[in-house]
Amino acid sequence: MRHNCCSGIEHPLVACCGGEGPYGATTKCGFGEYKLCDNPEKYGSWDGFHPSESAYRAIATGLLLGSYTSPSIASTTTSCPQLMELGSSAEYKPLYDL
Question: Which is higher by pLDDT, 78 or 43?
Answer without folding.
Answer: 43
